[in-house]
Amino acid sequence: MPATATPARPAPGTYQPYAQGYLDLIPEGADPLALLRQQPAELHRDLARLTEAQAFMRYAPGKWTPKEVLLHIIDTERIFTYRALRFARGDAQSLPGFNENEYAATSEANDRPMSDLLMEYHAVRAATLALFSSFTPAQLDRVGLANGGATSVRALLFITAGHERHHLGILRERYWPVLPAADTAAQQLAAPLR
User: Fold this and answer.
1) Digit-coded pLDDT (tens) for 12-62
2) Residues 131-159: what's their mean pLDDT?
3) How many CB atoms are located within 10 Å of the residue 120 CB?
4) For the whole model, what pTM was predicted?
5) Phi-psi region of 44 (alpha: psi -120 to 50; beta: other; left: phi over 0)
6) With bands split at pLDDT 50, 70 and 90, how would you rate the model's confidence at 6?
7) Which is more confidently placed, 6 or 189?
């Protein structure tokens, strides 16, 4: 795909209804590849500043930690790009969906340093950019079946960028306002469970 061409938005019917929220986060006329290139600096700035104690905090009971959110972004990006690769290559097999909550519950993200998760995120994003940048317009328009519905490679490009925007918005709106100061978070983690 030429570096100067902005991919057209996916046509209705080339993605599943759940994806509309992610597509709506990509402004009209925006280049999703440019967004994918810009997002790592933004995400890194927000998450690298967290102490390890803050990275364990949840904004409400039962919600993911910032580390789990980051690994969810990584896992989902891998799944979306895997689907994009298969569809771009003309694979007609229907691909299964995945349960994000089961993935998060078994991810062991909280056992890893934030710096390690960020390094993995950057590696995955570099691979994502290389893959999506390699697709021709015809490949972007190929459609496959995943999670019970039709999705185009073009839609997956936009969905990948929108998915990260969605989760960065949640971190900013729900996590950061209730995040305790570094010393308070460390004290809460050190306190015995009741």
Assistant:
1) 999 999 999 999 999 999 999 999 999 999 999 999 999 999 999 999 999
2) 97
3) 14
4) 0.90
5) alpha
6) confident
7) 6
For the chain, the straight-line distance linking the first and the last C-alpha, in angstroms and rounded, comes to 57
Contact 160, 83 (CB under 8 A): no
Give per-residue burial for 83-96: e unless 16+ CB within 10 Å, then b.
bbbbbbeeeeeebe
Give the domain ranges of the chain: 17-181
pLDDT(189) > 70? no
Sign of the CA dihedral with 169 first, then 19, 110, and 112 last: negative
Q: How far is Cα 137 from Cα 8, in angstroms, rounded to an integer?
A: 10
Task: Find, among 110, 10, 2, 138, the residue nearest to 54 by Cα.
Answer: 110
- If we measure between CA atoms, which residue out of 42, 28, 146, 37 comes closest to residue 87? 146
Which residue carries 């007609």 as its tokens? 92
**Runs of H (alpha helix) within the chain:** 20-24, 32-48, 66-88, 100-106, 114-134, 137-140, 153-170, 182-190
CATH number for 17-181 (one of 3.10.129.10, 3.40.50.2020, 3.40.50.2300, 1.20.120.450): it is 1.20.120.450
* Over residues 132-161, mean pLDDT: 97
